[in-house]
Amino acid sequence: MWMFTAVPILSNDRDWRRRSPRARPRTKLWSRIEASEMMPVVLLSDLHVDHSQNMSFVRELCSQTRNEAIIVAGDISHNFNLVEETLKLLSSSYRRVFFVAGNHELWVQGSQRGAGTAPSSIAKLEELSSICETYGVFDRPHRLDSVLVVPILSWYDLSLEVSASADLFEGFERWPWTDFRKCDWPSELEDEYPCLGNRYPSGVASSFEAKNDPMLEEAVEDMKEAETTSVLTYSHFLPGTFALPDWLKPESDVFDPAWFNHPAPQLSAKFSRVAGSSSIENQLRRLTPYADEHLHCFGHSHRPKDFYRKGIRYVHHPLGKPKERKMFLSPVHPLTKTVFDQRGQQVSAPTCLRYWESMMKGSDPLIECK
């Protein structure tokens, strides 16, 4: 793993810095945050290497040296040993690895690190950070030349619940959302709620938001001082209702129930209660004024997205599960998605709002392919 430390960036260092013609002038070019030269940046989320096909894909991906940085937007595995193995593989292949924990990483039951198990989800998060440090994986802000990369640790609350008829949420108290059984949170972060186990982690999102605050403040100060053509933020969870799989008009703030025009509206409605938090959007928007462009990457829903909303590009590029690929719900032929090139410029891609419709021309997304 290559390691770089922060160095003064001199305005006449033309060979090292290639300025974007869109970049605004800065009076200072010193970066307080650890920095590296620019390199292509690729994206992947929801690796779920518990599935042997997915682990084989990761091993194949890491079988050669790659002159890229990779953003891993959560959900490698609930199994601590597999998370460690995967981060080790990625760091041995990619020049930079950026990671943020998803919900599966914070399962306590079945976490399996040797003979021990993390006593709580908070403790497991701390162990994950230690593993990142061991393998040189970034779970903190890092600068790739004039592109600032910033993770946003997140969870879900009820702020992304869609406005839909009550019958679509019927049976939520029995819905087998595994986090409710396998995560272990301090009692002050949970509230009584009609869900599996009767405890909903209402306070986890705000707790993580507070944890992010010092890092975001540091990022803002850095962006004020250093030339920043782009900021790349990434979270595991969805930053707003507009990122839900069924949301068809990203610029709209109002959900149209007609968008539930498929056989599983109940699943979609229930998922909105565990999809993410509006606090993520509030946090990432704190950085937008200080860069010329803003790209936010996320994971969790396993339904690819690529769209613009109010000046920010949002991208979700999951590996997903083998069954989902077979059903055309996630990319059939897994590849990482390039979002920045060697010059630090975004790599454009077609707008993607419903991957399954573009692949199946609007047919039933739940019918398995024969």
From TrEMBL:
InterPro entries: Calcineurin-like_PHP, Metallo-depent_PP-like, Pantetheine_PDE
GO MF assignments: hydrolase activity
Name of one Pfam family that matches: Metallophos
Residue ranges constituting the Calcineurin-like phosphoesterase domain according to the UniProt record: 39-303
Listed name of the protein: Calcineurin-like phosphoesterase domain-containing protein
Organism of this sequence: Rhodosorus marinus
Taxonomic classification: Eukaryota, Rhodophyta, Stylonematophyceae, Stylonematales, Stylonemataceae
